[in-house]
Specification:
Elements (H helix, E strand, L loop, with lengths): L2 H5 L32 H7 L6 H13 L5 E4 L5 H9 L2 E4 L3 H10 L5 E2 L10 E7 L7 H14 E12 L4 H6 L17 H10 L2 E8 L13 H17 L11 E8 L1
Parallel strand pairs: 1-2, 1-4, 2-3, 4-5
Antiparallel strand pairs: 5-7, 6-7
Length: 261
């Protein structure tokens, strides 16, 4: 397939030249962002230019629920999760942003980072991670991405997918100030149940599912420190345990472990 056509398409009004709506009644479906938007300033603004504790948690989920290596980080950003996966075994990644791909190769030396989905080999991956990827693309693009995932996975291979939960507790408490709305490239926000059905309809079976919890307080105006801690305790316990304990819909993002049927 031709990468520019996969990530191109009609633009909309706003910071990315995109338009669309969000709400619990249905998904957002505008065209996908221009890869050039994901530059150094983008990662500096959202705090993902460097390493972060959440990536340690995702690696532990891979170790618990994944299918061993080879590993592949789809949408690998600046390469810090890819670097962590490479400690476990052979690892490679994919990025549409030339800036991100170049930075990822520096962060995870020795790891191949493709910038075209055509370069992802068939039947080559046992565990694939896609952390905060699908919310950046429209449904048509997500369909083509899932086709790539399914052809690239070895029999019995697994996926770890993380994406903001439009129906989650954090959004319900914060409304329009929810962090999921802070990034203008989040053009495809769905509830946990909507994503579950989306994956199932495309041949991806849920093995384990959960939430990241309420890790980003405060969740109420003028909340005291102990109130913030009360919301965040389950997320902290889950982080320490390295396994999915917080049920779907109970936090900021949905977490899925999937297998291709």
């Amino acid at each position: 397939m031709d990468q520019p056509s996969v990530y191109g398409g009609q633009t909309r009004e706003g910071a990315l030249g995109m338009s669309g709506t969000h709400g619990l009644e249905g998904p957002v479906e505008p065209a996908s962002p221009d890869p050039g938007y994901f530059d150094e300033s983008y990662y500096e603004t959202n705090g993902q230019l460097g390493d972060r504790p959440a990536l340690r948690f995702y690696v532990r989920l891979v170790q618990r629920y994944g299918a061993a290596g080879p590993y592949f980080d789809f949408g690998c950003g600046t390469g810090h999760l890819l670097r962590r996966l490479s400690v476990l075994g052979p690892a490679s990644g994919f990025e549409i942003s030339e800036f991100s791909a170049a930075r990822a190769r520096e962060t995870a030396p020795g790891c191949t980072v493709a910038t075209s989905m055509d370069d992802i080999p068939d039947n080559s991956i046992r565990t694939l991670t896609a952390v905060h990827v699908v919310e950046h693309v429209d449904d048509a693009t997500a369909d083509r991405i899932i086709e790539v995932w399914r052809r690239a996975l070895l029999p019995g291979g697994r996926l770890l997918v993380v994406t903001p939960d439009l129906g989650g507790r954090a959004h319900k408490m914060l409304g329009e100030s929810w962090d999921g709305f802070s990034d203008p490239t989040h053009i495809n926000l769905k509830s946990h149940g909507q994503w579950r059905r989306f994956f199932a309809d495309r041949g991806l079976e849920v093995v384990v599912e959960g939430s990241d919890g309420m890790w980003n307080p405060p969740y109420a105006d003028g909340a005291r420190m102990w109130e913030g801690a009360r919301f965040s305790v389950p997320a902290f316990v889950q982080f320490l345990a390295g396994r999915l304990l917080v049920p779907p819909g109970s936090g900021e993002s949905s977490i899925f472990v999937l297998e291709s049927r």
